[in-house]
Structures are given as C-alpha cells and as structure tokens.
Amino acid sequence: MDGRHRYLAGMTSIALGIDIGRVLMCPSADDARPDTSFLNLPEAQALAVPASPHVWDVVPELVRTFGGRVWLVSKAGERIEALTRRWLAHHRFFARVGLPADAVRFCRRREDKRGHALELGLTHFIDDRSDVLAALVGAVPHLYLFGAQKLAVPTFAKHVGDWLVARDVVLADLAPPQPAGPLADEHVPA
User: Fold this and answer.
1) Tens digits of per-residue pLDDT, 83-100?
2) Is 176 helix (H, G, I), strand (E, B) or coil?
3) For FRET with 49, which of 5, 92, 117, 181 sits at 20 to 30 Å CA-CA?
4) Where are the beta strands (DSSP E) in 57-154?
5) What pLDDT is attached to residue 155?
6) What is the dihedral of CA 87, 91, 93, 95, to 10 degrees?
7) pLDDT by residue (tens digit) across 117-152?
8) Which tens digit of pLDDT belongs to each residue from 101-110?
9) What percent of the chain is helix, strand and coil (3-state, nearest 5)?
10) Residues 119, 140: contact at Cβ < 8 Å?
C-alpha cells in the first residue's frame, strides 16, 4: 500500500460529489461560454453528446481512491433529469466508472445540493458554478470549481480547469500532510 492509500485508510470517511452538466458532459468553452446544446437537442442527438475529455480515465480513478463513495449530484427539472438519466444509461456511465446506478441525486434548486451533500457526508465536491459551491461552504470542506470561468475563482474553492487538473488537485488534497520546517529534512531511523 503506498503512502497516500495508507493515509486514506486511516481517515474517517471521505466522499466525493460530482455535478453532471458542464462537468461530466458539455464543458464550458475556453471563453467560459456554457455549452447548453444538451438541453436543446432532439433526444437522439442529446444522447450522442460525448462525455467531457478524460472523464473515462479520471473518474474511475477517483472512484477507486474514494473507495466507491462517489455520487453525482445535479440540479435539473423533470425533463432534463429524465434525459440525463437516459444519457448516463446510454453511455453506460456507472458500469464504466465503477459505481452503482443509484449513485445519483437530483434536485430542483441548486442550493438544495447542500442537503444532499450533508446527507451523503460529502467531503469533496466538483461543480462548474461558484454559487453552488458557495452554498456548500461549511458543509463540504474541499470545493472545486470546474472548467473555464468568466469571474475570479472565489477563495473558498480551488479551480480545476479540466478532468486531468481535477484529478491532480483532488489527489493532492488527499495526500498525507508533509512535515514543515527543519525536522522535515531530518532522517528518523526506522
């Protein structure tokens, strides 16, 4: 067992929440304009919308790292919730990332993600909206603002521009704390 996994094994439960729209699919363009095509396409075309780059590599790694304690938490109306559930099934999302099909929660208002986060005991959350993350302050210790952003990243969140950066930043937050100062360089015999 490597150092990170040994450290994680000693922690109380860690759990990750991931938004769906503009995070798992339809990421913002480099100029931070949202890709809303999924919302307006005919169903066949909406189902064909690909996952965000690197989702199929990074999310399974995070699922393993978090011991399977990963949930999708998304705000959607009834129509988009149903379409999103069909998109997840069409892409075999849960099987491909190693999660059970019931590891998804929907709410009708963005601020209601806080209730899901508290109920699930989430310790980390990835979302593309700073207002959602603001509602999670005090409930979820590690907040990540995903994708290109028009405004400055608030101090309560870390910016993760894409899934490769998200993986690196989340894993770094899970790394065991390193000693600082002069003792950090001293060799302690085993």
Assistant:
1) 999 999 999 999 999 999
2) coil
3) 117
4) 70-75, 104-107, 124-127, 142-146
5) 98
6) 140
7) 999 999 999 999 999 999 999 999 999 999 999 899
8) 999 999 999 9
9) 40, 15, 45
10) no
Q: Is residue 138 a part of any domain in this protein?
A: no
What span, in angstroms and rounded, lies between the C-alpha atoms of 128 and 145? 5
- In this structure, is residue 46 part of a structural domain? yes
- pTM of this structure: 0.87
Note down the domain range covering 83: 7-106+164-177
CA distance linking residue 92 with residue 173, whole number of Å: 29
User: In DSSP terms, which residues pair with 143 in a beta bridge?
Assistant: 125
Q: Which of 172, 128, 122 is nearest to 146 (CA)?
A: 128
For the cut 60, the answer to whether the pLDDT of residue 4 exceeds it is: no
DSSP state of 159: E
Do the domain assignments include residue 147? no
Nearest-angstrom CA–CA distance, 188 and 68: 35
Name the strand (E) or helix (H) holding 16: strand 16-18
Phi first, then psi: what are they for 94, rounded to 5°? -65, -40
Flag whether 28 is in a domain: yes
Per-residue pLDDT tens digits for 5-41: 444 544 569 999 999 999 999 876 676 665 567 888 8
Q: What is the pLDDT of residue 186?
A: 54
Two tokens, residue 97: 């990332």
Q: Domain count of the chain? A: 1
